[in-house]
Amino acid sequence: DRDRAPDYLSGLNPEQRLAVETLDGPVLVLAGAGTGKTRVLTTRIAHIMATGRAYPSQILAVTFTNKAAREMKERIGVLVGGAVEGMPWLGTFHSIGVKLLRRHAELAGIRSDFTILDTDDVTRLIKQILQAESIDDKRWPAKQFAQLIDGWKNKGLTPADIPEGDARAFGNGKGRELYAAYQARLRTLNACDFGDLLLHPIAIFRKHPDLLREYHGRFRYILVDEYQDTNTAQYMWLRLLAQRPSPAKGEPRTADNTVNICCVGDDDQSIYGWRGAEVDNILRFDKDFPGATVIKLERNYRSTAHILATAGHLIAHNEGRLGKTLFTDRHDPEDQKVQVHAAWDSEEEARAVGEEIEQLQRDKHLLNNMAILVRASFQMREFEDRFVTLGLNYRVIGGPRFYERMEIRDAMAYFRLVCQDADDLAFERIVNTPKRGLGDTTIRLLHDYARARDIPMLAAAADIIETDEVKAKARKSLFDVVTMVRRWQGLLENTPHTELAEIILEESGYTDMWKVDKTAEAPGRLENLKELVRSMEAFESMRGFLEHVSLVMDAEQNENLDAVNIMTLHSAKGLEFETVFLPGWEEGLFPHQRSLDEGGRSGLEEERRLAYVGLTRAKRRCHLWFVSNRRIHGLWQSTIPSRFIEELPVDHVEVAEMEQSYGGYGRGGYGQSRFDKQEPFQNTYATPGWKRAQANKTDATRDNWGNRSGVAIDRIGYGESGPKARTIEGE
Ligand code: ATP
Ligand code: MG
């Protein structure tokens, strides 16, 4: 009865409402961008609670980022009219995985206070293993092996599952043994990598069906956002939890034996294939969960008709897709077409974007509602520099993270060791930082001693100082380290943790090390250390803080400030902004050179989906940019506009007029030919107008713009735009 429906349902369209109200049995919502998939999930959770179907603690909800999880919690609170008390199982795959593992760590052969290693730690650990096995790490780089293992883990493969052929791919055919040795080392260190946060729970559930049954009883409703980007391990994990036993013959389906899983996603937004995501998971949903209700949403509530048409036209160039209809009721003649701008180089691009933003600001638009979405994170710096000059506030989301800075990592290593003294990687990081005259030989000796006895290195150090295996000076240094760490451990329980942090940084000599350092960065590093201690205040304990850091690397600078958002396209998934700027639409950058090198169409199609994600983040205004010269590491590269620009629909796109100094090409050059005469951009690249513009540049610039194509760019090293280090979330 519609009239008596609760408020939170009344705003939904019929399909959305069906998705919210179909509470029994599997449900898949497969729909394009901005059609309200996330809103359906949020409302569904509110509905489950409001109708008393389950307690908040009985709902397992997976989001792609921690930020999305927080937002979802807030939204639910608004819908049910009051703060949501405890939804402990709302989070990313990794944050839920870590929670499960803390509870049952002993079943995986580790203790519940295990450390979560980041990419750097993992690489260092692998280096040690390769060294121990005398494998030449020039031929078989540790980093490469780290990636290989990560790939295996994304596929849900343990060492025993690695096929023979694959195993031979690394380390003289020893890939599988090395992987096993790595897992054994992790166990000794009482540590996990990111992949383990899912793989351990999977193994535990498989080995302990009774425990799995307990969770079947607990998780009455399972909900997953961005399902198109789940990888095989995540999928296995979900299936284990979702496939509750079917009712015995003749028995009715009840709340206890129904599979109540609801996944939402969009095959056109699958952008993590390079990291093992399997879009097939979404395509075979109704095979895995028989009797699934599949719901399509076709009305887009986010974007203007121009933006929607532009994105739709672009993505239609992909072959491997299901194809969907998207429409909007919104037809406002005031709506702006998608704006395409050309700039001479990235500096001009940043300057022009800055001007556009200032104009919007003068028209009373909030900076919070604007975003710059880049393909590769190196593109950010130019904007950051420009915004600092202009005094425009900005925040980098998911960007170079505070916690990844060297001094922060050093300090954290001290804290880690104090909280968990089996953390050898932390021990190794700080034992000679600041310098204490401990050479490689001593470290190696400690290392071997520890391994031979299967004890942590800190304990080995404590042992060794009783012997005369090391020289007097080293012995004194080790004695100091052991004594200090033990003393701090003794303070752990009864000293306020921020105070303890200060004590550690002082007594270790770490702060002093930067105080006497004369390099330009030292003052900044000291500032950062202060900021680190400050940031700990928000936590109850040092352990809680460490957990937070390993989980949440979602940079949230200036949360409360009105600021422009800067992030990669990959981390923009699921978000929306009034105005979106998409710089760097050039061949070799976007589509990224690597996807072109692959040759096949799958890499290129993933790039196109990324472009689709970018365009569909915009609600009202969308600006694309391309430059004709890009400077990387001080070298100029000539570039040509992205093929994606050619694939945009003429009717919904407008070439913006350039008022800048190099106006010659802005209008007369490419503008007319592509959108007025319907010729591809590449042709106009060689028009006299374009050339003239180039000739006007200074000598310094001209020296370097040889006639290279965009192809040259990648050799100088574009980074992947996805998160550099693996963070616990979509990264
Ligand atoms: P994406 O694929 O980008 O993740 P989505 O399908 O998850 O998009 P949402 O973010 O849930 O889409 O919704 C897009 C926007 O449309 C949001 O601002 C949301 O509040 C709004 N919206 C969704 N459904 C409705 C509705 N029935 N009435 C009004 N606004 C709606
Ligand atoms: Mg969404």
What is the structure about, briefly put?
Belongs to the helicase family. UvrD subfamily. The chain is an alpha/beta fold and 731 residues long.
Could you please describe the fold and organization of this structure?
- The structure is a single chain.
- The protein is α/β, with parallel strands linked by helices.
- It contains 33 helices and 16 strands.
- Strands 9, 10, 11, 12, 13, 14, 15 and 16 form an 8-stranded mixed beta sheet that branches.
- The protein is globular and about 85 Å long.
- The model is unreliable at 552-558 and 659-731 (pLDDT under 50).
- The structure holds adenosine-5'-triphosphate (ATP) and magnesium ion.
The chain-level structural class is: alpha/beta
The Cα radius of gyration reads 28 Å
Name of the CATH homologous superfamily of the largest domain: P-loop containing nucleotide triphosphate hydrolases
The CATH architecture category of the largest domain equals: 3-Layer(aba) Sandwich
Overall pLDDT level: 83
Please indicate the count of domains.
4
CATH topology of the largest domain: Rossmann fold
What overall form do the CA principal axes indicate?
A: globular
Strand residues, percent: 5-15%
Which ligands appear in the coordinates? adenosine-5'-triphosphate, magnesium ion
Reading off the top of the CATH hierarchy, the class of the largest domain is best stated as: Alpha Beta
What is the first-to-last residue Cα distance?
Answer: 42 Å
What is the number of helical segments per DSSP (H or I, 4+ residues)? 33
Number of strands: 16
Helix content: 40-55%
The largest β sheet comes out as: 8 strands, mixed
Low-confidence stretches: 552-558, 659-731
